[in-house]
Design a protein that fits this description.
Elements: H1 2-25, H2 31-57, H3 66-93, H4 99-128, H5 133-165, H6 171-191, H7 193-201
Length: 202
């Protein structure tokens, strides 16, 4: 009994602090900053997972690229405010959780925001790498279509859940959990897919 009381005395304050911190971080005052930080951290995590996977796959012969991770972090930093305002605007434009409202939101997300986010990803990476217009256009041709199909397969079911079950202030948080998978795939498609295509053509 005493052990249980001691554990409760230890856990309860920690849980209270966590609850208070969560309320502050997801309050309207700090939500933009929280969502931006989440997007940046998750983007980096996705790239680290993908790089580590490729390193293991290649018998540890590959070296971790901090430059590549920094590029992905820049994308996450830029993407955070975009997705934050997208969910707010979308809910104002199409409020409610009826089947019709959810399907409209999913379609708008897939056919408006998805192309935007893919374009943002490729453009920011292109700018950081100093790519010219022709090279950037070529990169779009090679990877944008595949990214969109990947996006559709991941986000269509994910957003059905998001728009029906998740309160609006937590949608970017949920989005980022799903993005951990998407960002890992994005990182692979942008940085490794072309490399393997070239190797296959040799």
């Amino acid at each position: 009994m005493r052990l249980f009381q001691r554990l409760s005395a230890t856990i309860c304050p920690t849980r209270c602090h966590f609850t208070k911190a969560t309320k502050v971080l997801f309050s309207s005052r700090f939500l933009l900053y929280t969502n931006t930080a989440l997007s940046t951290v998750v983007s980096v995590a996705g790239d680290l997972i993908q790089q580590n996977y490729q390193r293991i796959k290649n018998d540890n012969s590959r070296v971790w690229s901090s430059e590549r991770t920094a590029k992905i972090a820049a994308v996450g930093l830029a993407f955070g405010p975009s997705v934050h305002y997208w969910y707010i605007g979308l809910e104002k434009l199409v409020p409610g959780k009826t089947l019709r409202a959810i399907m409209i939101k999913v379609c708008m997300d897939q056919f408006i925001f998805s192309p935007y986010s893919i374009s943002l990803f490729l453009i920011i990476i292109g700018i950081i790498e100093g790519q010219g217009f022709d090279l950037l256009k070529n990169q779009f041709k090679k990877t944008a279509g595949l990214m969109f199909l990947t996006d559709m397969s991941v986000w269509t079911p994910a957003q059905l859940v998001n728009f029906y079950f998740v309160p609006i202030k937590y949608r970017v948080l949920y989005d980022n959990f799903v993005s951990l998978l998407a960002d890992t795939l994005y990182s692979y498609l942008r940085f490794d897919h072309d490399k393997y295509d070239l190797e296959d053509n040799d």
